[in-house]
Amino acid sequence: MRTPPSPRTTLAVALLVLLVLTATAALLVPAPARAPEEPAACPGRAPGNWSTDPATTGAFARYGDDDSRTDDWTGGDGTHSVRLPDGRTLWLFSDTFLDLVHPPPNPQGASTRWRTTVTGGTPFLRHNSLVVMTPEGRPERTLTGGTPAAPGPFFPDPPGGGWRWPVHATVEPRTPGAAERVVRVLLWNRVPGTGPWVFGVPHGTEVATLALPDLRLESLTPVADQGAVADPGRRVLYGTALVRVGDVTYVFGGDDPPGSPADSAYLAKVPAGRLADRAAWRFWDGARWRPDAAGAVPVLRGGGRRGVGSAYTVVRDGRTWVLLTMDTAGGGTAGLRIITGYWACAPQGPWHGPAGRITPPRPAGPDPDHVAVYNPQAHPELTDGTGLLLSYDVNWLGPPGAAADPVVNGDVELYRPRFLRLRWAPAGE
Fold first, then answer.
1. Are 390 and 57 in contact (CB under 8 A)?
2. What string of H, E and C letters represents the secondary structure of the chain?
3. What's the pLDDT tens digit per position in 46-97?
4. Where is the composition biased (Basic and acidic residues) (predicted)?
């Protein structure tokens, strides 16, 4: 006859059954959705000490002043760069002047270099251009479209009006895992506008594919068309910053609300090798990644003392993500004078800041109060022991109705990028 179990044995069996049932239930019940990348602890970072970088600023000044050719770059903005596999650096510019640069004095008697067409006329802007820099740091060649007799933008204007402004670029496999690499360039597609849209109505984001090593334009692919969004101020253009982490490329973007001094930052991610594949894009909706851009929400919302400019930059310093932008929420002229920063432990945030201030030098111009700073961009591939290379664009933004072209053509320094070297400092909450 079998001996009956003791009370202690019965309790142990019951507890064992309960544990098995609990574990089984845990396997059957889906886990709550959460962010794919849980932010790990990281040290805060802010802009710290900085110094001007006369070497890079001077390299572009010398290249722009060289009149051995009159179909190459003499000034531009929207400054971005990408290191190519052979050691060259490809620089991408938005609105670009070519033509002829004259020594001082200019027609107004100022001791500045000035610009005309070859025949002495007024130069006009091409909507974009590329400049190839040697591994030694010397700009040597401008890439445009059109014809030799009539150079046009490298990325052609869309049919029916509008233009393409290149923003960030990266080198990635042609397809995931492929040995062949190509350059992928993010483009902002804008169409003409008036009033608050004097710099164009945002329309969508495209990706251009360039072959290597000859940098031949192969294709243009829409990846985030915003034409169906009725309110232009709610349209998001992607590509002001790209950060590659392993096999994922994070793509930062922003909106352009006309009634707010500060914009909001948005985030998408794409597997490496698939930037030109719209189906591969995923957009952050505040909790998870989703395939439709319409569900994206800001990772850094503009409002109050926070927000980003229309163009900003993002880099990593160890585990810390750092965003640099014009201080558009700082009030007064801060949005056209001062660069500030935000930091986070993951690309989707939470973003802390603003923290730190940089007030970069500006060329004097005929009226210094109207000389603006904008579009700070990091160039980590050109960082050295003196710090992160940071560019910023300058322009003359005169009183309403005043044309800028005569001023920036009368002093070519008023429409060329400048560079500085930046070191990080600790930042608190």
1. no
2. CCCCCCHHHHHHHHHHHHHHHHHHHHHHCCCCCCCCCCCCCCCCEEEEEEEECHHHHHHHHHHHHCCCCCCCCCEECCCEEEECCCCCEEEEECCEECCEEECCCCCCCCCCCEEECCCCCCCCCECCEEEEECCCCCEEEEECEECCCCEECCCCCCCCCCEEEEEEEEEEECCCCCCCEEEEEEEEEEECCCHHHCCCEEEEEEEEEECCCCCCEEEEEEEEECCCCCCHHHCCEEEEEEEEECCEEEEEEECCCCCCCCECEEEEEEECCCCCCHHHCEEECCCCEECCHHHCCCCECCECCECECCCCEEEEECCEEEEEEECCCCCCCHHHCCEEEEEECCCCCCCEEEEEEECCCCCCCCCHHHEEEEEEEECHHHCECCEEEEEEEEEECCCCCCCCHHHHHHCHHHHCCEEEEEEEEECCC
3. 999 999 999 999 999 999 999 999 999 999 999 999 999 999 999 999 999 9
4. 63-72
Taking all residues of the chain, what is their mean pLDDT, rounded to a whole number?
Answer: 91
Domains and CATH numbers, the chain: 39-426 (2.115.10.20)
Distance of CA 282 to the CA centre of its chain: 18
What pLDDT shows up at residue 216?
98
Q: What pLDDT score does 92 carry?
A: 99
* pLDDT beneath 50, residues of the chain: 1-36
* Diameter of the chain measured on Cα atoms: 119
Question: Which pLDDT score is estimated for 364?
Answer: 85
Distance in angstroms (rounded) separating the CA atoms of residues 214 and 142? 13
- The per-residue pLDDT for 357 is 96
Alpha-carbon span 374 to 341, nearest angstrom: 14
- What does the alpha-carbon distance between residue 88 and residue 229 come to, in Å, rounded to a whole number? 39
